[in-house]
């Protein structure tokens, strides 16, 4: 819309909005750089001596690196699994008439729409009986299931955008369906595939409930570790802040790069933004 | 395509579908069957007498006819959704309309606005816990300075605890609504708006009769999507109140979690989870209809 307005006047409400949105985060970033004496003060302290003590502590005393590694392993494995399985299915949904396709798709959607706890318990019962709770398999499978609909829906829309004529030309040249998929459709949707993978990775990285229920002890992720710093004797706020900042920074960086696709990703591909 | 070609295609289609079918059987169908069996037993890891004897539909009967906490949790969840979603929608739409034109730094601005939605709900919960801490929290301090809060702590009072959780949810998810509305507004053709202006419509009339009516399918989708997501709220409540004080902020997901993984009543928990899964199948069917219609546009 071409509205005539004063850009300075126009930006005042925006600045207020940004204050509301950003101050909570800025405050936790500041907290991560404070020493113990500056953390809990009345009135709250905006100016203080910067210290990296909290970061040192979570790395040396709280084995932050172990949890970070767990989050990475779980994130990457579930992303690889989910993207592989989901992309193949998406291609079938896009190109062929899959028998009972609507039912299968609906089933995939239902696994994502229901409350995670309702799906976590059945998985817990199975892994409990198989004695696999202290491995990461449970969380990896759970995160892959949870994100499947995103991969299928988004990749299907990317495959739908590939012109059929290109594929038909390849068939005429004697390519098999697998070759057409492998050498033409997949490379053409490659940028989309990367975006989808980033989304799955972020969702897995940020997920709490499955990670909380399906993993134990040494196998826990960052999202489970952060609340564990709330102790009965009091919360280690400096360490909570430092861990929160380290957990969220990569997400913010990725968000900037996939911004063009945020609408698609956050609605599991249902809305094309 | 000849017959041989069709056979090849068919075989390739099954090659594509086989992994997802096997995957769903392993991670979803098999666990569901196990859960159905367990929901018919009294199985608890803490109560010694409940060692797995089959009791038929007793768990379901108890849940649906006797468990007042279950229905309280449902009504809390409905209340939560009914308050947060309209606010998120109105705020999101307002912000989207406000920034719906080209200007320098738009991309960066949108990324910054999206921060609450993108960071982990665990981090959101922790941030707010820190802001709202009794006396030392930044927000608590300024609110007290302005005379809003007496000496009560926010999370020990039933009303303020629930209200705070709602406000945090609105803070967290308004950006999501904004993003969807912005996508709809950007995709909208400009001619009808200009035509309406030429016909002498004022800004409100354009908004109501032109823009909103164009956005309607998207609004239905977005509100429904958010309502489903909001009904599952767990992470922030788990961090901030754990469902308390008492069970004042115990939504359905928190209730199911507490019963199953705090009290370790697995048989009863399985019954709860299956009832919830059944509800969500019904909701999913509705959602599926709405979105497939929206996608056909």
Structure report:
Chain A contains 14 helices and 2 strands; from the N terminus they run H-H-H-H-H-H-H-H-H-H-H-H-E-E-H-H. Chain A is an all-alpha fold and 273 residues long. Chain A has one domain: MetI-like (MetI-like fold, Orthogonal Bundle). In chain A, strands 1-2 form a two-stranded antiparallel sheet. Chain A starts with 6 loop residues before the first helix and ends in a 7-residue tail after the last helix. The model of chain A has no long low-confidence stretch (mean pLDDT 88). Chain B has helices at residues 3-39, 58-66, 68-98, 106-113, 115-118, 121-131, 138-145, 158-187, 191-198, 203-231, 235-240, 252-262, 266-296; strands at 41-43, 51-54. In chain B, helix 10 (203-231) packs antiparallel against helix 13 (266-296). In chain B, a hairpin with a 7-residue loop joins strand 1 and strand 2. Chain B has one domain (67-296): MetI-like (MetI-like fold), CATH 1.10.3720.10. Chain B has 13 helices and 2 strands; from the N terminus they run H-E-E-H-H-H-H-H-H-H-H-H-H-H-H. Chain B has a two-stranded antiparallel sheet. With 297 residues, chain B is an all-alpha fold. Chains A and B meet through helix 1, helix 4, helix 5, helix 6 and helix 7 of A and helix 1, helix 4, helix 5, helix 6 and helix 8 of B.
What would CATH call the homologous superfamily of chain B?
A: MetI-like
How are the strands ordered across the major sheet of chain B? 1-2
| Element-level helix/strand string of chain B | HEEHHHHHHHHHHHH
Distance between the termini of chain A: 19 Å
Mean pLDDT of chain A: 88
Spatial gap, N to C terminus of chain B? 31 Å
> Which structural category fits the helices and strands of chain A?
mainly alpha
The total count of strands of chain B amounts to 2
| Whole-number tally of structural domains of chain A | 1
Major sheet of chain A: size, sense and barrel closure? 2 strands, antiparallel
Q: What's the architecture of chain A, going by CATH?
A: Orthogonal Bundle
According to DSSP, the number of beta strands of chain A is: 2
């Amino acid at each position: 819309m071409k509205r005539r307005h004063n850009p300075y006047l126009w930006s005042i409400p925006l600045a207020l909005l940004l204050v509301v949105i950003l101050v909570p985060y800025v405050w936790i970033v500041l907290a991560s750089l404070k020493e113990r004496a500056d953390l809990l003060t009345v009135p709250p302290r905006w100016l203080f001596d910067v210290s990296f003590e909290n970061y040192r502590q979570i790395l040396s005393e709280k084995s932050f690196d172990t949890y970070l590694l767990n989050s990475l392993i779980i994130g990457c494995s579930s992303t690889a699994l989910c993207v592989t399985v989901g992309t193949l299915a998406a291609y079938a949904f896009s190109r062929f008439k899959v028998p009972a396709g609507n039912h299968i798709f609906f089933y995939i959607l239902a696994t994502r729409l229901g409350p995670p706890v309702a799906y976590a318990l059945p998985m817990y019962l199975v892994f409990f009986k198989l004695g696999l709770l202290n491995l990461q398999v449970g969380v990896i499978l759970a995160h892959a299931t949870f994100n499947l609909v995103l991969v299928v829906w988004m990749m299907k829309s990317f495959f739908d955008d590939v012109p059929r004529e290109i594929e038909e030309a390849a068939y005429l040249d004697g390519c098999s369906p697998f070759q057409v998929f492998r050498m033409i459709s997949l490379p053409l949707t490659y940028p989309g595939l990367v975006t989808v993978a980033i989304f799955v990775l972020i969702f897995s990285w940020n997920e709490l409930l499955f990670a909380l229920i399906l993993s134990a002890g040494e196998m826990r992720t960052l999202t489970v570790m952060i609340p564990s710093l709330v102790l009965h004797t009091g919360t280690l706020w400096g360490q909570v802040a430092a861990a929160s900042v380290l957990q969220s920074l990569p997400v913010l960086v990725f968000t900037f790069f996939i911004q063009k696709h945020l609408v698609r990703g956050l609605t599991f591909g249902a809305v094309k933004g | 395509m000849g017959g041989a070609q069709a056979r090849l295609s068919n075989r390739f289609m099954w090659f594509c579908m086989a992994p997802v079918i096997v995957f769903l059987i392993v991670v979803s169908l098999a666990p569901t069957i196990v859960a159905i069996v367990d929901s018919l037993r009294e199985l608890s890891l803490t109560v010694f007498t409940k060692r797995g004897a089959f009791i038929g539909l007793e768990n379901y009967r108890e849940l649906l006819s006797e468990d007042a906490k279950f229905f309280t949790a449902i009504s809390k969840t409905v209340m939560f959704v009914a308050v947060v979603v309209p606010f998120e929608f109105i705020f999101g739409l307002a912000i989207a309309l406000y920034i719906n034109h080209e200007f320098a730094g738009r991309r960066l601005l949108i990324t910054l606005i999206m921060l609450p939605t993108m960071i982990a709900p665990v981090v959101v919960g922790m941030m707010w816990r820190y802001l709202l801490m009794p006396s030392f929290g930044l927000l608590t301090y300024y609110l007290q300075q302005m005379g809003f809060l007496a000496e009560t702590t926010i999370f020990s009072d039933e009303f303020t605890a629930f209200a705070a959780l709602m406000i945090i949810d609105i803070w967290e998810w308004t950006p999501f609504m904004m993003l969807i509305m912005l996508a709809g507004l950007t995709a909208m053709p400009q001619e009808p708006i200009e035509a309406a202006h030429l016909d002498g419509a004022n800004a409100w009339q354009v908004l109501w009769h032109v823009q909103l009516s164009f956005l309607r399918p998207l609004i239905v989708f977005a509100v429904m999507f958010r309502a489903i997501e909001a009904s599952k709220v767990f992470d922030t409540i788990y961090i901030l109140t754990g469902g308390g004080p008492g069970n004042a902020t115990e939504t359905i997901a928190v209730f199911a979690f507490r019963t199953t993984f705090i009290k370790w009543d697995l048989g009863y928990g399985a019954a709860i989870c299956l009832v919830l899964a059944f509800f969500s199948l019904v909701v999913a069917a509705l959602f599926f209809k709405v979105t497939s219609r929206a996608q056909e546009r």
